[in-house]
Amino acid sequence: MTSSLLEQLIDALRVLPGVGQKSAQRMAYHLLERERAGGQRLSVALAEAVEKIGHCARCRDFSETPVCATCASASRDAHQLCAVESPADRLAIEQATGYRGLYFVLQGRLSPLDGIGPRELGLDTLAARLAEGEVQELIIATNPTVEGEATAHYLAQLARQHGVRPSRLAHGVPLGGELEYVDRGTLSHAFGSRTEVAD
Asked: Transmembrane segments in this chain: where (predicted)?
């Protein structure tokens, strides 16, 4: 027995992160009741994006061209390479900092239980890039999770093998945060990673 078009739409919307049955149902009804023109635009944009957006051959970020605009830019500092887990992490760093180097997007993190190893993260591509000799610093910006820390350790070893200095994003007490409200793990990590106060 085939499901109705409405059921198929609701089921299709459930592929989005954090969208369960009720949310998908609410979205489907909204599109059909009040936003049919928007639904048409959404379907066209989604179909085009899925067909035309691939990955940059240099950094593995999403790109419509073989090499993305960031990697192709002559104004970026090729001596610095920042490794991030996802395109969303790259965008966050780009928007929040003055970083002008290049990126390498892992598209995940090491997780042997999920079958994600060095090959799935494109680390052979990263090793080849480090071997070119242009990169002097690999900034490791993986998340402070168990898998993120294991990935960071692997990346640091890979960088040292190619004579590249690895560095890691600082983790700890957030700016404007109060110690009594910081979780124990974060506070412990911040305390253990404390640095000397400069003059």
From this structure: none
CATH number of the domain at 92, please.
Answer: 3.40.1360.10
Strands of 15-141, DSSP E: 54-55, 62-63, 77-84, 101-105, 137-141
Strand partners, 84: 105, 141
- Quick count: other Cβ atoms within 10 Å of Cβ 96? 8
**Could you read off the pLDDT of 66-77 as tens digits, one per residue?**
999 999 999 999
Helix, strand, coil percent content, the chain, rounded in steps of 5: 45, 15, 40
CB 89 within 8 A of CB 134: no
Q: What pTM was estimated for this model as a whole?
A: 0.83
pLDDT, tens digit, 9 for 90 and up, residues 22-37: 999 999 999 999 999 9
Q: What is the largest CA-CA distance in the chain?
A: 74
pLDDT per position as a tens digit, 54-106: 999 999 999 999 999 999 999 999 999 999 999 999 999 999 888 999 999 99
Number of domains in the chain: 1
CA atoms within a 13 Å half-sphere pointing along the CA-CB vector of 55: 15
Classify residue 28: in a domain, yes or no.
no
What range defines the domain where residue 114 resides?
78-168
Is 94 inside a domain boundary?
A: yes
